[in-house]
Design a protein that fits this description.
Helix content is about 35%, strand content about 20%. It is an alpha+beta fold. The strands form 3 sheets. It has a 3-stranded antiparallel sheet with strand order 1-2-5, covered by helices on one side.
């Protein structure tokens, strides 16, 4: 049976890709990161998400493959991506077809802003 977890920026399927189609699998999970291209990704940052996904899959080793467990992994990855955004590892893609700042309004650094609001 095909299970899936869909969040705003993460989709996980119990399937593998064959000829550009998802084919159900009881042994393979497929991860789709940021399907709407809301963020700008480097190869390094994408690989960081894939490594986190691998860690999560390993942590669920031996447990039943259920939609609930997939949703937990998806939610954990969503939080991980949010942390990457807040840490400046990724940023919003302003050329995305939909700009909704789903993880918060971006910070804009302005010269002198620190001094302007400094408590004396």
């Amino acid at each position: 049976m095909l299970f899936k977890s869909t969040t705003r920026h993460v989709r996980i399927y119990t399937a593998e890709i064959q000829d550009n189609e998802l084919v159900e699998s009881n042994n393979v999970l497929t991860l789709d990161v940021d399907p709407d291209n809301e963020f700008n990704w480097s190869e390094e940052t994408l690989n960081k998400v894939y490594r986190k996904f691998d860690e999560l899959v390993e942590s669920y080793s031996g447990e039943d493959l259920t939609e609930y467990n997939l949703r937990r992994m998806g939610s954990d990855l969503e939080h991980f991506i949010r942390d990457m955004l807040f840490n400046g590892e990724i940023n919003y893609n302003l050329n995305s077809r939909v700009i909704n700042y789903s993880m918060g309004v971006p910070k804009v650094e302005t010269p002198g802003a620190e001094e302007q609001y400094k408590i004396q």
